[in-house]
Write a structure and sequence with these properties.
Blueprint (H helix, E strand, L loop, with lengths): L1 H17 L2 H8 L5 H11 L6 H7 L3 H4 L12 H22 L5 H12 L1 H10 L14 H5 L2 H19 L1 H13 L4 H6 L4 H11 L6 E8 L6 E8 L2 E8 L2 H20 L1
Antiparallel strand pairs: 1-2, 2-3
Helix pairs in contact: 4-10, 6-7, 6-10, 6-11, 8-10, 10-11, 13-14
């Protein structure tokens, strides 16, 4: 864990150096509600020196695109990117150590089942995270607070904020308590394998080129986009999928592809 801690400390330094000073200054003038601060204290313990990280983690992109919002407000999209990497690393380490008999393909499949938006949104709902999202005035608040995509993004962003504020051990403690020890964790791991992984396994076993995922269309407002993705192999489209996140659209496309492949082989 010490080597892992040093690695993430270096990454955190790079992230901190890349932050824009004018944005830091603006965010320093903002404040979370007393209710949300109390919620965070109950959820993660006493926050460190930068409560503003958590404000960013809870800020939905609808705020940025709202005409009534100052242009320097930052959404949680950058923190979601970081939190996704931190979560992926922590879950990978847990699976690697906890399932010593599992092969690489099974480990990858189990990780994908845990960190996909459906699972993460479920974890977020169990924490009532949607009640504390910061939304644009003109956005559909009820829809977003219950949105799988918005909840999953906020959950990953929160992990990113905890990591930057308190370090990798605190991030792991959060993941351990709210994911690994969650009542649904074993059910999720035992569920059917990840479709993208299964499609890769199929192409490899049949000496085919790897699947190629392509975004066909993007529709909707910036904060409520919907992506349609196709998956092809050797120039032949095998399936398509539509979802609010590209990764979920890819999963649906791979699922359709595997269903077609099974029909062909049966």
């Amino acid at each position: 864990m010490q080597a892992l801690e040093k690695f993430w400390q270096k990454l955190r330094c790079l992230v901190d150096l890349g932050a824009d000073e004018s944005e830091k200054s603006y965010r320093a003038e903002c404040a979370l509600s007393d209710e949300t601060v109390a919620y965070l204290q109950q959820l993660i313990g006493e926050p460190g020196s930068n409560l503003l990280l958590y404000q960013t983690a809870l800020t939905h992109r609808s705020v940025v695109h709202d005409p009534a919002t100052p242009c320097l407000i930052e959404s949680n999209q950058r923190l979601e990117f970081l939190g996704d990497s931190v979560l992926g690393m922590l879950i990978s380490e847990y699976l690697f150590k906890g399932f010593p008999e599992s092969a690489e393909g099974e480990l990858s499949s189990n990780r994908a089942k845990i960190v996909n938006s459906k699972s993460l949104a479920g974890f977020a709902r169990s924490l009532n995270l949607g009640d504390h999202l910061i939304l644009g005035e003109s956005a559909d608040h009820h829809k977003i607070r219950n949105s799988e995509s918005a909840l999953a993004d906020a959950f990953e962003s929160l992990i990113g904020a905890i990591y930057l504020d308190k370090g990798i051990k605190a991030a792991f403690d959060f993941v351990l308590h709210h994911i690994i020890e969650h009542v649904n964790f074993k059910t999720i791991v035992a569920a059917e394998h990840n479709y993208k992984s299964r499609l890769i396994e199929h192409t490899q076993s049949n000496h085919l080129p790897p699947p190629l995922y392509t975004v066909i269309t993007e529709t909707g407002a910036e904060h409520e986009k919907s992506f349609t993705v196709s998956v092809s192999c050797s120039g032949q489209i095998l399936g398509t999928g539509t979802a609010q996140r590209k990764r979920d659209a890819e999963q649906l496309a791979a699922k359709e592809a595997m269903e077609r492949i099974h029909l062909t082989l049966s």
